[in-house]
Hints:
- Keywords: Magnesium, Metal-binding, Nucleotide-binding, Nucleotidyltransferase, Transferase, tRNA processing.
- By secondary structure, the chain is of the alpha+beta class.
- The chain has 4 domains: about 1-160, Beta Polymerase, domain 2 (2-Layer Sandwich), CATH 3.30.460.10; about 165-250, Orthogonal Bundle (Hydrophobic Seed Protein), CATH 1.10.110.30; about 285-430, no CATH class; about 435-485, no CATH class.
- It contains 22 helices and 13 strands.
- It has helices at about 10-35, 45-55, 70-80, 125-130, 155-160, 170-175, 180-190, 200-205, 215-225, 230-240, 245-250, 270-280, 295-305, 310, 325-340, 345-355, 370-380, 385-395, 400-425, 435-440, 450-465, 470-485, and strands at about 40-45, 60-65, 80-85, 90-95, 100-105, 110, 120, 140-145, 150, 165, 195, 315, 320.
- Helix 13 (about 295-305) crosses helix 16 and helix 17 (about 370-380) crosses helix 19.
- It is elongated and about 90 Å long.
Amino acid sequence: MSTPSAAKPELELLRRALGVLTEMAPAATELGEAFRAAGHELALVGGPVRDAFLGRPSNDLDFATSATPDETERILAAWGDAHWDIGKEFGTIGARRGDVVVEVTTYRTDKYDPESRKPLVEFGKSLDGDLSRRDFTVNAMAVRLPELVFVDPFDGLADLARKVLRTPIAPERSFDDDPLRMMRAARFAAQLSFHVEPGTLAAVVALASRIEIVSAERVQAEFSKLVLAPNPRAGLEVLVDTGLADHVIPELPALQLEIDEHHRHKDVYEHSLIVLDQAIAQETGPDGAVPGPDLVLRLASLLHDIGKPATRKFEAGGGVSFHHHEMVGAKLTTKRLRALKYEKHVIKDVARLVELHLRFHGYGEGAWTDSAVRRYVTDAGPLLERLHRLTRADCTTRNRRKAQRLSDAYTHLEERIAALRQQEEIDAIRPDLDGNQIMRILGIGPGREIGQAYQHLLALRMEHGPLGEDRATDELRKWWAARDA
């Protein structure tokens, strides 16, 4: 790969990229030769180039070309095992050959209607012009094919070496043209642990409100990628510090409650970020109970205390209370995630974890009955393993003795849950009699009474454990007789 002169950090990145690009070269260079034979330019662009410098190979490759979409489609149809034109209106044609998936896009110069959520696509004439419309310089590098010539008109390699996010053109123009790029700045800070260049950051502050013209679905996609990144805290701090969060997830900066002069409560915002970090540390590998990265656990950890600002009360004795903040927080979580167009199951699960996150704190003295343990497991349902991790992560006290006491108490609760699992089917608790048996024993048909009887037997099952069919039948008849009395 031919290169311009470079400083030592860039040279090391170039060596790393050369190794990655050499591995992908057979497929990429052959495709480049096909385009050249047809009289067109082709270059590997964007994320695959950046990731090559970071030592991360990819089977999903993005290319830019001087060819029109129709010309690209003809070349890819001959090159690949399959091809598709789903992005043809934007100049993009996709194809697959073996395990390699490619997307080839005609050089573009996007123009934006200031009030529109979508770019007006105009095809460009040069690779440099195409790269100038990219979001950040680290994504505005390319490798011309089949020659493997490195192209870097905006010094993206130097920014990559310094771990800096900077726009190829003036950031005010870039973000005004496409406000979603501001969300991507936060996302890349989380994914790559890069910092945003001061001028670029200032532009985000100035233009933060422009994000409101972007569709909720696109904002949510970027926010989810941020939350699932290796270092979400870095991205969240960009959102909050620039004011972008005020328009995307305002409940997050609202956690920055003013600390009163007596410091009677924690910084809830900082506490929430710590809980998120600690929950991530408890995610498991692919075969574990909570494989990471887990969107539900991470969102619940971040949002578990969003009910506190609305419930904060200064008590007469000098304390601060947040009564029922878990219930208020569950409602706020549901409202916000709906606004961001999350899927129903994600909204339901995250809100449920927020609602349950304080339940354990009644266990501190170890006074729970078996019935209470059963209810804890039943109420958590399939979210139990996530609730375990959220509850443990929620301990951010600097008092080591208190932290150890809480950890020991939760370990004890987990041991009791395990013991009950050995004795009974605690994860799927049902009454000892089903609806058909209840109708047969009472000699009645379907109706409201069957549901009432079922709930009565379920309560007995929760309180006493398995009753057995004979005892359950006796209890059912007693309940029925008392009802008629």
